[in-house]
């Protein structure tokens, strides 16, 4: 059974950091493009970051560029999102997603991704 499970969310003060993880089971993330997306209440889902197969290409939305870093740990079949200098507008439910097409480039487009996790909540508030 293919499954993605996110973890690492929580409540943090502005300026703080969190590290989100996305663990895959039932398939290997090694050959998949991976994306992170978020959705705040009452807002549309937006792309945050993505990483192509092999980690050779990464993309970030303008709102997180310079603060967030996406990375892979193939040995753990995990993709991480390090989030620094968090702002209240970063709050939302964060999802990871994987493309089924192997050896593909990533794009910040949720329509490219077929397999999704259930999300982990991030709340940035003082």
Short recap of the structure:
With 126 residues, the chain is mostly beta strands.
Question: What does this molecule look like?
Answer:
- The protein is mostly beta strands and 126 residues long.
- Helix content is 0%, strand content 50%.
- It contains no helices and eleven strands.
- The chain has strands at 3-7, 10-12, 18-25, 32-39, 46-51, 58-60, 68-73, 78-83, 92-102, 115-116, 120-124.
- The strands form two sheets. Strands 2, 4, 5, 6, 9, 10 and 11 form a seven-stranded mixed β-sheet that branches.
Number of strands: 11
Instruction: Point out poorly predicted stretches.
Output: none
Percentage of residues in strands? over 45%
First-to-last CA distance? 40 Å
Radius of gyration: 13 Å
Structural class: mainly beta
Order of helices and strands: EEEEEEEEEEE
Helix fraction by DSSP (H/I, runs of at least 4): under 10%
Averaged pLDDT:
95
Annotation field: number of helices: 0
How is the main sheet built?
Answer: 7 strands, mixed
Shape: globular
């Amino acid at each position: 059974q293919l499954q993605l499970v996110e973890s690492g969310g929580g409540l943090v003060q502005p300026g703080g950091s969190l590290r989100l993880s996305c663990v895959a089971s039932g398939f290997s993330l090694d050959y998949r493009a991976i994306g992170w997306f978020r959705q705040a209440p009452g807002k549309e889902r937006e792309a945050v970051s993505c990483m192509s197969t092999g980690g050779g290409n990464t993309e970030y939305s303008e709102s997180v560029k310079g603060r967030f870093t996406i990375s892979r740990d193939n040995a753990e079949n995990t993709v991480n999102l390090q989030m620094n200098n968090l702002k209240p507008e970063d709050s939302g439910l964060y999802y990871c997603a994987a493309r089924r097409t192997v050896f593909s480039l990533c794009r910040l487009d949720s329509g490219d991704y077929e397999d999704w996790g259930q999300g982990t909540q991030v709340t940035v508030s003082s």
